[in-house]
Amino acid sequence: MPAKKKAPAKAKSSRLITASKDLVADVALANLILFDHDILDGFGHVSARHDKDPERFVMARYVAPGIVVPSDIREFSLDSEPVPERGERHYSERFIHGEIYRARPDVNAVIHSHAPPLIPFGTTGAPLKPMYHMSSHIGMGVPVFEIRNFQNDGQMLIRSAYLGRSLAAVLDDKPMVLMRGHGATIVASSLHLAVYRAIYSAMNARLQMEAMRLGGEVTYLNESEVEYCTGPEGVENTCERAWALWQRESAGKKR
Amino acid sequence: MPAKKKAPAKAKSSRLITASKDLVADVALANLILFDHDILDGFGHVSARHDKDPERFVMARYVAPGIVVPSDIREFSLDSEPVPERGERHYSERFIHGEIYRARPDVNAVIHSHAPPLIPFGTTGAPLKPMYHMSSHIGMGVPVFEIRNFQNDGQMLIRSAYLGRSLAAVLDDKPMVLMRGHGATIVASSLHLAVYRAIYSAMNARLQMEAMRLGGEVTYLNESEVEYCTGPEGVENTCERAWALWQRESAGKKR
Amino acid sequence: MPAKKKAPAKAKSSRLITASKDLVADVALANLILFDHDILDGFGHVSARHDKDPERFVMARYVAPGIVVPSDIREFSLDSEPVPERGERHYSERFIHGEIYRARPDVNAVIHSHAPPLIPFGTTGAPLKPMYHMSSHIGMGVPVFEIRNFQNDGQMLIRSAYLGRSLAAVLDDKPMVLMRGHGATIVASSLHLAVYRAIYSAMNARLQMEAMRLGGEVTYLNESEVEYCTGPEGVENTCERAWALWQRESAGKKR
Amino acid sequence: MPAKKKAPAKAKSSRLITASKDLVADVALANLILFDHDILDGFGHVSARHDKDPERFVMARYVAPGIVVPSDIREFSLDSEPVPERGERHYSERFIHGEIYRARPDVNAVIHSHAPPLIPFGTTGAPLKPMYHMSSHIGMGVPVFEIRNFQNDGQMLIRSAYLGRSLAAVLDDKPMVLMRGHGATIVASSLHLAVYRAIYSAMNARLQMEAMRLGGEVTYLNESEVEYCTGPEGVENTCERAWALWQRESAGKKR
């Protein structure tokens, strides 16, 4: 049972994509980069707002992130329905993406992951705090989404527009939201910045756990440091330097 | 002393295998996947119930999991004896497999490992609990097998049908059993699901140790969440998406 | 958008470099070695004092350490300005390097990193102490730089000569300085020794965190042990043996 | 400065080796295996007693373990002097090996490492105890060598026959000795078993640190379990299965 994806529909497929070729390639690459940095594994998904139509977003069809290629990328409406409908299987949690794009015009990329270092924070309520300049966005606030507040049938996934809206409401105007017993969703004004934030959020979680165990008081970034580092002169503007590296590594890796 | 296996008996060998070629290939691949995910190393074993004869199971002969190939797969009776007997060396703990298949008609795959993150739980009696939806099967219960309750000669391994039956009795109707000072045994209705459970059980153990150290209260999945996530609409049904990734990675890896 | 660097200016470029070819190659390689050992990632930088002009130092232009090649190496004055000025972008924190070379004639190499294991120490004030002979330089003293003592606009980076001088003053005559909420800067009399110290400083931090959690008292190297191990007969003189390994690994790695 | 070793003396070199070709190859391979398992890095060494002359042992000349090849292997007397003397540089701590072979006729292999997980135990005095059957040899006893009891000039290394004898005396009849602020030395009746013990000693240390932090009581192997597992029917007899894997991995790895 080879895992290769079938090629037949390919020619037709690319004609159905109206987003720019560069954006499609970047979203596919973001999947690989996040997989290579242990943010995504066989699960999770990354999307970007369509670059010509703000009422759409692009994301892979039902494929494990570690093996996404550009021809897997599809377009979705803000109702999180594939456009056009091609009878394919899609991530059941695609509502995370559509509802956040609808609620947050400033957001152009969304990453949903089960990144391991974030799970203990979402599960205990220990607040995630900004350890260093690289993850200053954490200082903007990291709410925790408790799904039990919105339904009580034991379902853990965001499989409806209602739950997507609920998640977006808890996310509010923040850069990320932890999801208890599930994972995290991270947003940004650009795909590259969202990838940067996903990688350094996980790093921050690892570092914070270590620091909390050292026994003393931890000096987190203060308000003015967070403001500066996430501002126009701040650290987040250097994410293109890292992207150039990640691109080289992940695009060039034999799989 | 080259580690290459001898080829001569190969033609004969394949005629002695009555299970389907696909199952044999899948069991060999499961060895590599579990090795690549640090669940197995030079030790441990994975088996599947024979797909044409429920009174048999298939498993590798005495070979380290990281280098198993399809021609290493053999058939065994539920007495854990090789069928046919070919004078080869076999895992001394094969009774784990035969006795579980006998006691549990619902089980079609068994994985025995020394996965490092599970050892501290088996050794301290700290209960393993379900951290997130990915490892919801842990919420079905994880008993601990204490071999001292069944014999007292200092032997730690399941080298007899008696100990195999004892282990199966402690496993009961659960998806996994920890073995004090030894490892764990994980079962499932399919080989792919068993591999999924093995990988995310180890991840759960890592995450739970981190969460327990954060100092606050940990909110584990509750009963209805466990029921939903392990049910027909639950997370475990998505394991084929991950298998496609694992297959690509492990089958394609140069060794 | 390929990440390849443009080649046109290359011929001209090499004529602008007055440091020896070997030094330039070594600085480029040090970037890769430190990247491969998780000391640098997409960020951080490593420099060496110019081998023919002690009033200059060599360092990469604005490129992620993991992809630096010899043709990226540039020369800088002790004012941390590129010589000659070629209109290129440079690391905004290059003042770390220039000001340390100015203040410390004994220093011939400077590494600035965000090495993860060092962050919890810089952030909590838990003192880093020498766990074993491999990291005996830590026993010479590891001050912590608190940028809030020198400016208060929320900026975390060493983006001015003033802050560079302030950092150098806190570093004093020590082999390294932790930077709260930021990272660390490590110096040595040679590039190879600086790389050695960077790698084993991070290892010491990891080991010390584990030792502190074991609950008993930790026996660190005492004064005479630190003196011996950092002295002419000491462990640091064996760093060439490790360099030969690191060079083989990192220079030969497909990227 | 290429790291390649010079070839000229090779023909002559091999004529100077009187141990069997297989033993020489195995010692070189053991270096690579231990490097690939993070037991050795640029430092540490592994030796085996000469298979034709018990008054000699074989070990690499002064080369980082990760790049040792068979032509680097030399012979040494029990005085830890090279035989014949060829004017080459050797590990300054070779006395560890000679003095242990002299004191322990049952020992045929010695590994000296700075394996990271063992350092916190040597440094705190927290006793290393046997977590599971894979590391049952730890239950035979693990003394700690405190060099301050034997000299007080601050020197940390075993650079003399006197210190080698002192270490051997503390090791006594045990399978390993921790060295405070330095590392560990592990011995066995065969090279393959010594490699096995080195790998699973480090794993035991990792698992024990995790178990101790879980907060409950840890159930270590008891006396009869240690006796059984290290005995003729015990786990240690299966190390050839793992060796076949390690050989395949490390010998086949592109370096």
Please give a structural write-up.
Four copies of one chain form a homotetramer. Chain A has eight helices and seven strands, in the order H-H-E-E-E-H-E-H-E-H-E-E-H-H-H. Chain A has helices at 10-15, 21-36, 95-103, 119-124, 161-171, 191-213, 223-229, 239-252; strands at residues 45-49, 56-60, 73-77, 109-113, 144-145, 176-179, 183-188. Chain A has a seven-stranded mixed sheet, sandwiched between helices. The longest helix of chain A is centred in the C-terminal third of the chain and has 23 residues, at 191-213. Residues 1-11 of chain A have low confidence and may be disordered.
From the structure above, extract its key features.
homotetramer, 255 residues, alpha+beta, 8 helices, globular, disordered N terminus
What does the secondary structure layout of this molecule look like, with pairings?
Four copies of one chain form a homotetramer.
Chain A: H1 10-15, H2 21-36, E1 45-49, E2 56-60, E3 73-77, H3 95-103, E4 109-113, H4 119-124, E5 144-145, H5 161-171, E6 176-179, E7 183-188, H6 191-213, H7 223-229, H8 239-252
Parallel strand pairs in A: 5-6
Antiparallel strand pairs in A: 1-2, 1-4, 2-3, 4-7, 6-7
